[in-house]
Each structure stands twice: as structure tokens, then as C-alpha cells.
């Protein structure tokens, strides 16, 4: 099941009272500024991808993250698909994918005809386990498999362990594709998420750090790679007037109107990140003295804190993550476990895997808490008060 992207029903009643103000995990943070940008874009009368908004949005994102080229696409999933094709993923190749991720990461691999091979995560951060990756790349090489890419995900906005990952992948000659769908605005050693691999992607889905309702972007310093992705994403139409096609193309460009929405959101990105970080700090203080609990990936000043998840060891805490979830649901507050790992998904059940059990453990013990920058102070107080009430009853 898609564990982040749909709103599960929050309990409609609490103490016999209808909850009129449900609190969601990561609602869109969109207001008058976005309205004015969108209206201005409509009034230009330009609705084609060559209109002024899309090119401007691409240049602004590229400048923001410090990369040479950016390509606006209809979703993060489309961006992943284009990135993977651009690095040569296809039938007769494999792509290494973390098992703890949203299904889009693995699905994009499958679209290319390549085979996803799943690798477990580091328990402290939820990011790809580099030791396991090292073993796996060795085994794949011994088996004569062509590894088209290692697809790395920056979970909940925390960058993966690039100090170790990049040399490993460079030594084996495998390109890194960075799924920074959740990590726009995050940094690692001063460098922006999305820029660590040959190519990276962002998502502007409705619940991401910034949104265009639906949208995504591909970024790279490789001019030819981005040009190839742009070509494939624009129906692979050759630059002649008579509609010549030498490749199977896709209709994947971002709407220029949505690019205008993105420009407004990008101008507010730092403010939105600051709000999410403040929320994480508040949760960290709340759980600091609670035995058997920790904040996933805590202590990373570069994270954009897209979602904050608490991890609960029931043997030490005396309660389960699910108990807190049920309590919050009664208060009209949404929370949910991290994604069910890909190797547990019926559709990917028979794939090759390299596992330690860490992703299964996180799935069983984690709970993502309301983390959106659009949450009002009152809503945050309600969530924090609800958790404090729960904890008080479980001392
Ligand atoms: C959101 C997300 C995607 C997909 O992005 P869409 O814009 O929804 O297509 C891919 N990977 C990860 C890790 C995501 O969180």
C-alpha cells in the first residue's frame, strides 16, 4: 500500500464530537503568492512548454541547488524514468534500489525493462546500507550482471552516506542516480541533495517539501544527458517540421502553469524548511526523555526535515508505535508507518534482495508524525498535546 501519498481516514469523532479540523502529515503550503504567480502565468496566454514560466523555473531550481541543467517534468516518477533511461537502464540490466522507499522508485526501474534488486537500509537513518551495497555489487559483478545504476534515496530529506557511497560506486563504474524526491533544499557537507549522482530528481507532488500539485524535475551537470532526457520527454520529436521520430518518446513535460506555481513555492522554500525543522526540534524535545524512542535520522543539520518519524522499541517503551497512531487518530491527527518495504510488496515478491532486516524493523516500529510547514500553531499544539497525553498515560 502507498503509505504516504493518500490520506487514510482519520477518526471522524473524538469524545462524541466531530473533528472539524483534521491534522494531516504534510498538507500543501500554498497561498496568495502562489495564486498571484499562477494568475500571471494564465494571463501570458502561453500554455506550451516553451512558454516563459517553465524555462525560468528550471533555471531557478538549477541555480538554487548549484547544478548546470534542470528539466521540468510531470512528476518525480517521470523524472526517475527519464533519468534511468538516460544512464542506460533497460532490459538485460539491473538497478540497485533501496527496499525502504516509496514504490515509485522501484516502478521507474521496471518501466525501463531493467530489473530492480533490493538492498536493505541502515537502521539509524533509513538510508541505503553501504556495506550491504558493497557486497551486493561484488556478487552482481561475479554473476556477470550489468548494473545500470545504483538508485539512492534520501529518506525523509536526510542525505545518504555519500562519503562512502560515491567512492564505492566510482570504483565499480556504476553511475549513481539520486532520488531526492523528498530532499529538495537538504544539504550534505554543504552540497545540495539531488546533485550527488550523474543525475538527480525532485518531486513536487502535493505532500512534498514544495508542491506544484503534481510535478517533478531532473537535474544534472551533464549537458548531453539532460538534452537526451528533454528529447525523450517531449515525444522524441526530431527538430524538423514534419514530425520525425527515431525513438519512442513520452509526454512528460511539466505544465508551464504549474511551473509558475513552482516558482512561487521555490521563493518560499527556505521559510518552509525552517518551519519543518522547528517541528522536528519540538518532537525531538518531546521524545528526548522517553525510553525506547528515537527520531529517525536525528542530528542531521542539513536535512530539510520533510517528514519526522519516531521509532519505538516496544520492549523498552512498553507501548507500540501503533498504539500512539490509534490515540492520535481518535484526536483527528494523521500519522502512519514508513513504507512497507519493496521486497514485502506482492508485486516485487520474487526479486533478488540483500537484507539485514532493518527495513522490516523500521516498517514495524516507525510512525511518521505531522510535519508540514502549513500546520498552524494550534494544530501543532494539538498534536504535541495529544502525544504528551498519550505518553503521560504510559509512564
Ligand atoms: C514522492 C516520491 C516519488 C515520486 O514522486 P511523484 O512526483 O509523486 O511521482 C519518488 N520517490 C520518492 C522517494 C518519493 O517520496
TrEMBL record:
Chain ranges passing through the membrane: none
Catalytic residues of the enzyme: 208
Signal peptide feature range: none
Sequence segments annotated as region (Disordered): 1-22
One Pfam family per UniProt: DegT_DnrJ_EryC1
Keywords: Aminotransferase, Pyridoxal phosphate, Transferase
Gene3D superfamilies given in the database record: Aspartate Aminotransferase, domain 1, Type I PLP-dependent aspartate aminotransferase-like (Major domain)
GO annotation, biological process: polysaccharide biosynthetic process
Cofactors required: pyridoxal 5'-phosphate
Protein name: Aminotransferase class I/II-fold pyridoxal phosphate-dependent enzyme
N6-(pyridoxal phosphate)lysine PTM sites in chain numbering: 208
Example of a GO MF term: pyridoxal phosphate binding
Family statement drawn from the similarity comment of this UniProt entry: Belongs to the DegT/DnrJ/EryC1 family.
Amino acid at each position: 500500500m502507498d503509505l504516504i501519498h493518500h490520506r487514510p481516514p482519520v477518526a471522524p469523532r473524538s469524545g462524541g464530537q466531530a473533528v472539524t479540523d483534521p491534522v494531516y502529515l504534510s498538507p500543501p503550503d500554498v497561498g496568495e503568492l502562489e495564486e498571484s504567480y499562477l494568475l500571471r502565468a494564465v494571463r501570458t496566454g502561453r500554455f506550451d512548454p516553451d512558454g516563459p514560466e517553465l524555462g525560468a523555473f528550471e533555471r531557478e531550481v538549477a541555480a538554487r541547488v548549484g547544478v548546470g541543467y534542470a528539466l521540468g517534468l510531470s512528476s518525480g516518477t517521470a523524472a526517475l524514468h527519464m533519468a534511468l533511461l538516460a544512464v542506460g537502464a533497460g532490459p538485460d540490466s539491473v538497478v540497485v534500489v533501496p527496499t525502504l522507499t516509496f514504490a515509485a522508485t522501484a516502478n521507474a526501474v521496471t518501466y525501463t525493462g531493467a530489473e530492480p534488486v533490493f538492498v536493505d537500509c541502515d537502521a539509524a537513518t533509513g538510508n541505503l546500507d553501504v556495506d550491504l551495497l558493497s557486497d551486493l555489487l561484488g556478487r552482481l559483478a561475479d554473476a556477470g550482471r550489468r548494473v545500470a545504476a545504483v538508485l539512492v534515496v534520501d529518506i525523509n530529506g536526510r542525505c545518504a552516506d555519500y562519503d562512502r557511497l560515491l567512492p564505492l560506486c566510482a570504483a565499480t563504474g556504476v553511475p549513481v542516480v539520486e532520488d531526492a524526491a523528498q530532499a529538495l533544499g537538504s544539504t550534505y557537507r554543504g552540497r545540495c541533495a539531488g546533485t550527488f549522482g550523474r543525475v538527480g530528481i525532485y518531486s513536487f507532488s502535493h505532500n512534498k517539501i514544495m508542491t506544484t500539485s503534481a510535478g517533478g524535475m531532473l537535474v544534472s551537470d551533464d549537458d548531453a544527458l539532460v538534452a537526451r532526457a528533454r528529447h525523450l520527454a517531449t515525444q522524441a520529436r526530431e527538430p524538423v517540421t514534419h514530425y520525425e521520430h527515431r525513438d519512442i518518446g513520452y509526454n512528460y513535460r511539466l505544465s508551464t502553469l504549474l511551473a509558475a506555481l513552482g516558482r512561487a513555492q521555490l521563493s518560499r522554500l527556505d521559510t518552509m524548511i525552517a518551519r519543518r525543522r522547528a517541528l522536528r526540534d519540538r518532537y525531538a524535545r518531546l521524545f528526548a526523555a522517553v525510553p525506547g524512542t528515537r527520531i529517525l535520522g536525528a542530528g542531521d543539520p542539513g536535512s530539510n526535515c520533510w517528514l519526522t518519524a519516531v521509532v519505538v522499541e516496544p520492549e523498552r517503551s512498553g507501548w507500540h508505535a501503533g498504539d500512539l497512531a490509534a490515540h492520535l487518530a481518535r484526536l483527528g491527527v494523521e500519522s502512519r508507518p514508513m513504507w512497507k518495504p519493496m521486497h514485502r510488496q506482492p508485486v516485487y515478491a520474487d526479486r533478488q534482495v540483500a537484507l539485514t532486516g532493518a527495513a522490516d524493523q523500521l516498517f514495524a516500529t516507525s510512525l511518521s508524525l505531522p510535519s508540514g510547514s502549513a500546520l498552524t500553531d494550534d494544530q501543532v499544539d494539538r498534536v504535541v498535546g495529544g502525544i504528551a497525553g498519550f505518553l503521560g498515560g504510559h509512564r
